[in-house]
Write a structure and sequence with these properties.
The protein has helices at 45-59, 88-97, 113-129, 136-149, 163-170, and strands at 3-15, 18-29, 35-40, 65-68, 75-77, 85-86, 100-103, 132-133. By secondary structure, it is of the alpha/beta class.
């Protein structure tokens, strides 16, 4: 329950009748390595915040901090030797949900390695298994089913435990969701 890492991935896949670029927001809990992802048309601020909120709802609670890269949706400026200037709307989201917003050090994306690996895992597993979607909502329906049936049930390579079983020990440490979304 200490940290959730949030990042974006993108790829071209078949939606409806043709190929199109799709973005997905991946959010990974640090202890259990349980993750949630949500597909969207854009990876802008609104969709970043929506992806984080949906992840909290999926996990049934809020991590104590959220670690993000230095995209403008969350970080206005972050130069080495200077303090981080966060996007006010991201700070508002953090205040409402009760988490501490954190940004990776510039040029050090590996700080967010858990989530970087999840982006690759999603691309090489979910988007290999499912190659054609009726719509974006159909894609998200399949994603939630795949998460529950496959991703949560796998033995994680690093921690050598079944993800959903390890999450059972983490869930009680998450902060409660606010009464209002």
């Amino acid at each position: 329950g200490e940290q959730m890492q949030s990042d974006w991935g993108e790829l071209i896949t078949r939606v409806e009748a043709g190929a199109r670029k799709v973005f997905f927001n991946a959010n990974t809990l640090g202890f259990s390595r349980r993750f949630f992802f949500w597909c969207a048309e854009r990876n802008d601020a609104e969709h970043t915040y929506e992806g984080i909120v949906r992840a909290f709802e999926y996990f049934g609670g809020v991590s104590r901090e959220v670690l993000v890269d230095n995209r403008k949706a969350a970080v206005i400026s972050h130069r080495i030797g200077e303090s981080v200037r966060l996007n006010e709307r991201f700070v508002d989201l953090a205040g409402h949900y009760g988490f501490i917003p954190r940004a990776c050090r510039p040029g050090r994306a590996r700080t967010k390695g858990k989530d970087e690996r999840m982006v690759g895992y999603i691309k090489h597993n979910f988007f290999v298994r499912y190659r054609h979607f009726k719509s974006l909502s159909h894609m998200n329906e399949l994603a939630e089913r795949w998460l529950a049936e496959e991703a949560d049930r796998r033995v994680h390579g690093t921690v050598k435990e079944v993800v959903i079983e390890r999450f059972a020990r983490e869930a009680g440490h998450l902060l409660p969701l606010p009464a209002q979304r």
